[in-house]
């Protein structure tokens, strides 16, 4: 076997050049500083925020009451660290931390699972499987590696692909791990997942990219892994963003940069192509929550014949509802017919081809008209 030892930056010189962009540096201010080890990742700060009650002794309601109280304290501390008024070294090493509290909450949520907006409420901790994710408490990782195909500011991205998803996209490019063979990965514990993250970072990853499938069904393992992770690395949430408010509240204090998909501009297309009800309401709610608590690159995949019903409403909503000075948008042209679209093309005639030049040009022109910054990451 011949190993390719070519440095990654020769494959992706734009991953270095992108940081010359003031638009990028301003919007990814926090992520860049954690990536360069100038600032501690948020999960490290969370480990040092003290909780004076033992989370193991609290019931579900008590855990949430304490969580919401400590979250206010964390955000004050975070702001002071961001503004160079405080360092993480000045914080205590508490017996019970804010991270311990989040771990306890995630495990409690697993007993009547409401990680995603499907809200199956099955007891996954006892071995029951979610109605859509098909997972119990176990987490399956199918691969992890330095991904060179992500957006320029993220490359090389320490990407971890989790099995399963709560969507049923008929065009899914990762259908093997998201829908059909979700248990074929490697079973990981929180500690072994931390080891994977440390290995990726120590070998040069700019971030840890939690993806899939979708990472949402594995929140409990991911959050607990951070307790054992002892290297500084930005945590990136690469998701369809179909999470509950409760799941978002657990994540917002530990995710440094969000990489959300914003697929559809209406509920009809979402239900038909991904089997998802209330899509627009849920995803836009979560995007508003996320942008308040981290840097963000939004992905929108342009579908053929869906520029008017999806692409334009998505871009318009972003421009009208999210702060332009904080958000980058990747307008993606990578769609190709996959999975069920190829297997049953007569059922999916509108998306049986790749998007045309005119459709992509229309999407880019509309984004420019709205003042959306997309060129550095698209």
Order of strands in the sheet with the most strands? 3-1-2-4-5-6-7-8
Low-pLDDT windows of residues:
none
Number of strands: 8
Q: Give the overall pLDDT as a whole number.
A: 97
Helical proportion?
A: 40-55%
Return the structural class. alpha/beta
Characterize the overall form: globular
Gyration radius (Cα, Å) is 20 Å
Helix and strand sequence: HHHHHHHEEHEHEHEHEHHEHEHH
Short description:
The protein is an alpha/beta fold. It has helices at residues 8-11, 14-17, 22-27, 29-35, 42-47, 60-82, 98-110, 175-180, 190-202, 219-228, 245-251, 267-274, 279-291, 307-321, 340-343, 357-370, and strands spanning 139-147, 157-162, 186-188, 208-211, 235-239, 257-260, 295-301, 327-332.
Describe the structure.
The chain has 378 residues and is α/β, with parallel strands linked by helices. The protein has helices at 8-11, 14-17, 22-27, 29-35, 42-47, 60-82, 98-110, 175-180, 190-202, 219-228, 245-251, 267-274, 279-291, 307-321, 340-343, 357-370; strands at residues 139-147, 157-162, 186-188, 208-211, 235-239, 257-260, 295-301, 327-332. An eight-stranded mixed beta sheet has the order 3-1-2-4-5-6-7-8. Strand 5 (235-239), helix 11 and strand 6 (257-260) form a beta-alpha-beta unit. Helix 7 runs antiparallel to helix 10 and helix 9 packs across helix 10 (219-228). The two termini are 34 Å apart. The relative contact order is 0.12. The model has no long low-confidence stretch (mean pLDDT 97).
Keywords summarizing the entry:
378 residues; 16 helices; eight-stranded mixed sheet; single chain; alpha/beta
């Amino acid at each position: 076997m011949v190993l390719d030892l070519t440095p990654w930056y020769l494959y992706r010189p734009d991953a270095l050049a992108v940081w010359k962009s003031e638009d990028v540096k301003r919007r990814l201010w926090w992520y860049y500083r954690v990536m360069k080890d100038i600032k501690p990742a948020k999960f490290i700060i969370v480990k040092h925020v003290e909780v004076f009650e033992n989370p193991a002794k609290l019931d579900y309601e008590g855990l949430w009451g304490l969580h919401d109280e400590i979250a206010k304290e964390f955000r004050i501390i975070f702001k002071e660290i961001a503004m160079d008024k405080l360092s993480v070294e000045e914080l205590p090493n508490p017996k019970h931390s804010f991270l311990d509290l989040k771990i306890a909450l995630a495990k409690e949520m697993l007993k009547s699972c409401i990680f995603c907006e499907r809200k199956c409420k099955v007891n996954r901790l006892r071995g029951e499987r979610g109605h859509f994710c098909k997972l119990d408490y176990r987490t399956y990782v199918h691969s992890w590696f330095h991904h060179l195909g992500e957006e320029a500011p993220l490359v090389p991205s320490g990407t971890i692909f989790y099995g399963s998803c709560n969507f049923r996209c008929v065009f899914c490019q990762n259908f093997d791990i998201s829908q059909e063979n979700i248990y074929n990965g490697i079973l990981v514990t929180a500690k072994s997942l931390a080891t994977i993250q440390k290995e990726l970072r120590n070998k040069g990853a700019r971030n840890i990219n939690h993806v899939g499938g979708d990472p949402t069904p594995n929140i409990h393992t991911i959050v607990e892994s951070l307790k054992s992770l002892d290297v500084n690395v930005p945590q990136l949430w690469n998701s369809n963003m179909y999470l509950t408010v409760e799941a978002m509240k657990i994540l917002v204090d530990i995710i440094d940069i969000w990489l959300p998909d914003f697929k559809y501009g209406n509920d009809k297309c979402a239900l038909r192509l991904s089997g998802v009800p209330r899509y627009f309401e849920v995803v836009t709610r979560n995007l508003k929550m996320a942008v308040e608590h981290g840097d963000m690159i939004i992905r929108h995949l342009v579908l053929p014949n869906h520029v008017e019903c999806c692409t334009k409403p998505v871009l318009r909503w972003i421009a009208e509802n999210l702060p332009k000075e904080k958000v980058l948008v990747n307008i993606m042209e990578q769609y190709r017919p996959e999975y069920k679209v190829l297997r049953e093309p007569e059922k999916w005639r509108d998306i049986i081809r790749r998007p045309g030049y005119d459709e992509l040009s229309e999407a880019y022109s509309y984004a420019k008209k709205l003042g959306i910054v997309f060129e550095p990451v698209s």
